[in-house]
Amino acid sequence: MELTKSREDYLEAICEICEEEKVARVKDIASHMSVSLASVNYALKALKSEGLIKHKKYGYIELTEKGNEIGQAIYRKHKLIRSFLINVLNVDENVADKDACGIEHVVSEETCDKMSSYLKSKEVFENYDISS
Fold first, then answer.
1. Predicted model pTM
2. Do both 108 and 89 map to the same domain?
């Protein structure tokens, strides 16, 4: 299944929110992504039709197994790339976060594995699990 960058961003946001808050709501996603409620609802309809989320109107958003798998993979890439940019290249945290958001959609698993191995070998990673 080929997802757009936008839909990947929504899955990643849901993963992040659920990690912090345990549940995701439309307003949480809108706030997290700085988008309108209408934009979130539009994206959620698409994600639901693709079988990536479960969502009843005005209810919590729940990732399906496949949605969680994709969302976690994107989220892992984001954290890994961000850590590499900050800890290896000394990029400013805000810039690294923005750049990681763009790179995460196109970087290969092979490159991510190499970055992860490098960070682990140098013991220069942030306090989170960067493994798959």
1. 0.84
2. yes
- Note whether residue 27 is domain-resident: yes
CA 16 to chain centre: 7
Q: Which residues pair with 53 in a beta bridge?
A: 63
Name the residue range of residue 93's domain: 74-122
Residue 48 buriedness (CB in 10 A; 0-12 / 13-18 / 19+): middle
CATH number, domain of 26, equals 1.10.10.10
Give the tens place of pLDDT for each residue, 78-132: 999 999 999 999 999 999 999 999 999 999 999 999 999 988 887 765 544 445 4
Domain count, the chain: 2
- Secondary structure of residue 55 in the 3-state scheme: strand
Q: Cα–Cα distances in Å, from 25 out to 10, 35, 54, 84?
A: 12, 13, 12, 31
